[in-house]
Amino acid sequence: MSTQTEIGSPAKGHLRRHFWQRLGFQEAVEGYTFALPAILGLLIFTIGPIVVSLYFSFTEYNIVKPPEFKGLANYQRLFSDGLAHRSLAITAYYAFLAIPLSILIGFLIALLMNQKVRGVYLYRTIWYLPALVPAVATGTLWRYALNRDFGLVNIPFRVLGLDAPGWLIDPRLTVPALVLIHLWGLGNAVLIYLAGLQGIPQHLYEAAEIDGANWWQKFWHVTVPMSSSIIFFNLIMGIIGALQVFTEVYVIFTPTGGEGSVGPQNAALVYLIYLYRNAFQYFRMGYAAALAWVLFLIIGILTALMFRLQRRWVYYEGERAR
User: Fold this and answer.
1) Which one of 23, 120, 180, 264 is least enclosed by Cβ atoms within 10 Å?
2) What architecture is the 73-320 domain classified under in CATH?
């Protein structure tokens, strides 16, 4: 009896392992089968177009004729294209204004929305509502709000007897007007800041009070360091969003500029508008693909630089980021 048990036990163990191996294989097959639509979607609709656009950036392609390989001609042309340089400069100017202001103002609004006052939930809702408005509707709304003659933004100037600024007709005010529109829709950033502020442990403030810290010291030595990772996240998203500004500019200025100037003296010719025109108005698909890849490299380099610099000032869970 014992001999049969000793002889049979290895076989039973082998059958048991074989059963679990087959079960694991079956689960893996089922898992990949359910994930297959998402994988195919990623390959066909995301990675595929990326690879094709990289190939097109080395070709001359106008949709009508097959692409003709030209090597680095599109990239060489970009270095001598004055409009491309101007669009990059305008986009950089917009980002230089929009990113710091959005971080500072968004963080300050989140601090206010984090106070325990009556009706704070209503205030939070009001601040977040503009983020729910579609970009096309936002552009249309601000196109009328910034009108020099009857725009709502210029009412205080008319009440005070001052000349109303020509937000949409003065080239010096075009980019500041776009920044104003951007600041109006800070609801998402404020919501992220608010979530981060509510996650700061209260015992840190209590310890600071015991040590005799005033409100500024608690803010600078507790609130800011504990929110630095959230600030960093919004900084990265702000860089990506500012360098890809498009919809509001297209809605506000393209109907007035047509195929010529974008805004007064091309003051609103941001990079993506120039890319769009090359692709869908002039049908220079190869050159537009090269423009897109240059923007991708710029965003990638800036993002990598920010991740490297974060080691000096970003904290995670109270510890310095490594």
Assistant:
1) 23
2) Orthogonal Bundle (1.10)
**Coil vs helix vs strand at 88:** helix
Grouping H, G, I as helix, E, B as strand and the rest as coil, residue 69 is strand
Report H helices in the chain.
2-42, 48-56, 73-79, 82-113, 120-132, 135-145, 155-159, 174-184, 187-198, 202-210, 215-218, 224-243, 247-257, 271-280, 285-309
> Look-up: residue for tokens 């980021």?
321
Question: How far apart, in whole angstroms, are the C-alpha atoms of residue 276 and residue 205?
Answer: 50
- Asked if 150 contacts 244 with a C-beta cutoff of 8 angstroms, the reply is no
Judge residue 139's burial from the number of C-beta atoms within 10 Å of its C-beta, 0-12 exposed, 13-18 middle, 19 or more buried: buried
Q: Tokens for 103?
A: 């971080």
Domain spans of the chain, in order of start: 2-56, 73-320
Q: What is the pLDDT along the chain (322 residues), one digit of tens a residue?
A: 444 444 445 555 555 555 555 556 777 777 888 888 999 998 899 899 999 999 999 999 988 888 999 999 999 999 999 999 999 999 999 999 999 999 999 999 999 999 888 888 898 998 899 989 998 999 889 998 988 888 888 888 888 888 888 888 889 999 999 999 999 989 899 999 999 999 888 898 989 998 888 989 999 989 998 999 999 999 999 999 999 999 999 999 875 544 567 888 888 999 999 999 999 888 999 999 999 999 999 999 999 999 998 887 887 764 544 4
Q: Is 135 in contact with 247 (CB distance < 8 Å)?
A: yes
| CA-to-CA dists, residue 259 to 254, 266, 274, 279, angstroms | 8, 11, 11, 13
Closest among 33, 81, 130, 30 to 288, alpha carbons compared: 81
Residue 156 burial (10 A CB sphere; 0-12, 13-18, 19+): exposed
Diameter of the chain measured on Cα atoms = 110
